[in-house]
Amino acid sequence: MPATDEAAPLTVAELIALGSHTGDDLAAAHSSAVNLATHCGTVTIQNALTGEHRTFRIKLQSARAKFAPGRRVVGLLTGPDNARDFTQFGFATDSGAVAVWRKLRAEGGAAPSKWEGFARMLAELLGSAAPTFDHSPYTVHAATRCRKCGRGLSHPVSIAAGIGPKCAGRE
Question: For the chain, first and last CA: distance in Å?
Fold first, then answer.
C-alpha cells in the first residue's frame, strides 16, 4: 500500500495570519505549503462559501517530450477521471505565475477568459501575485492518495478523510 501525504490544509486566512496582508508575505506563507513557483503535483482549491472546488495539476514535461520539454504545464480537472481528465491551459513560471496560452486568452480589451481567471486565482493563492479578491473563504489542499488503494484524491471531503468514495463504501 502506498504511503499517504496527509498534511493538514491551511486556509488562506490562516496563511495571511502568519504574516502581514502584502502579496510578498502571502507568497512567503505559501512557500511552506504549496508554492506555484516550484510545485509539481495536484492541488485542490475549495471555496467554503459556495462549496465549489477546482482541482489543478502542475506537471513537469519530460525532457524528451514533443510538446514543451522541461516545462511545467498547468491543467484543470474537467472530467470524472482525476488521473487523466485535465485540460491544459498554460505554463507555471518560476516567478509564481501562470502564463496562459495565447489561444485561450481574451482578445483585445475583452474581459479576461475563464482560463486567465484560473491563472490569476492560482497566482494569488499559490504564487506571488498581490491579492485582488477576498482569499478568506478559500482552502488549499495539496495532493493526497487514498489510504486503501493509493489512487489520487481530488475532492475536499475525500482529501480530509484520506479515503476515496469507492473505498469508503467498502469499509
Answer: 16
pLDDT tens column, 119-161 = 999 999 988 788 888 888 888 888 788 888 888 888 888 888 8
Q: What whole-number distance in Å separates Cα of residue 109 and Cα of residue 100?
A: 16
CA distance readout (Å), 80 to 86, 105, 118, 122, 139? 10, 25, 19, 22, 21
Q: At what angle do helices 23-30 and 114-126 cross, to 10 degrees?
A: 80
The domains of the chain are located at: 10-143
Q: Are 21 and 27 within 8 A, CB to CB?
A: no
Question: Is 17 a residue whose pLDDT tops 80?
Answer: no
| Residue from 70, 73, 45, 39 nearest 59 by CA | 73
